[in-house]
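Quick one, T. Sequence first:
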Amino acid sequence: MRNKDINMIAKLMPALRMTKQGANLETISLVKGATIELTFHGGETWTVHTGKPLHGLKLIKKIVKALQGQAEIY
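C-alpha cells:
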C-alpha cells in the first residue's frame, strides 16, 4: 500500500507546486508511523502527525490541509 501512496504523491507534486502554499515545496516524506514531513526549498521542514497511518484520499487531504495551514505543524 505504501508504494501506491508514494506514486500517488509523486503524481500530485506538480499540482501542489502550482498553488501559492506549495510553490516552494521540495519533497513530501511519509515517515515511519503516522508522520508526514513537508520539506521546502531553503531547508524549512514541516512535520504533521496524523494520529494513525493515512492512505489514499485521506493522505492527500491531510497534506493539502497542512499546506493551507489547517493542520498542526511541528
